Amino acid sequence: MEAFFDHADEEVLRVRGKGRKGWLPAFRDAALFKVAYAYGLRRNETRMLDLTDFGVNPEGREFGEYGTVLVRYGKAKKGSPPKRRSVLTVWHWTPGIVEEWISEVRPGMRHSTSRALWPSERGPRLGLQRLDSRFAAYRDALGLDPALEFHSLRRSYITHLIEDGHDPLFVQQQVGHEHASTTAIYTCVSSDFRTRSLRRVLDATIEAAPRPGRTS
Fold this sequence. Notes:
Helix content is 50%, strand content 7%. It is built from nine helices and three strands, in the order αααβββαααααα. The longest helix is centred in the C-terminal third of the chain and has 18 residues, at 191-208.
């Protein structure tokens, strides 16, 4: 993830260094990928965000105006309307990304009067094809596994929350899964995480074990 985001940022600097206005959509794409990862969003959930979808979390005031994001176009069951959910901000760097895009960069976009968070160069809202093509371009430029796709940002979000010690039920609610088993399928923790988890259990077991001369 770090390499992917670094490459997205470098692309902004590369295009801007040539004096081309194309750095604006490049910045948008970089910010969009980071926001999708920061909230574990699906493609359409990401593209359908509006400027007014962010709000304050009373229990997380350090995030300011970006403590929550309202997802209005969550995945729905067949024949049902899109599911809505509120996703809490969990990482300290997220508000800065959103604020810089909205306040400093987005006003320079051609369709900045649109309510959409991510306007395109040709219309008021970015299309799904652009999300896929830019993700693939950055992935291929880094030589990453061609099986990786936009949805991999969501999988990474779930995995990293679990590795950071967040309660599985909290993670399930954040991503809008109806069943915990679905969240478990998305989780692919690293071998280092499994080793650390085992070490904590073993250390706790040893600490709790009776020792010579130790009274309970």
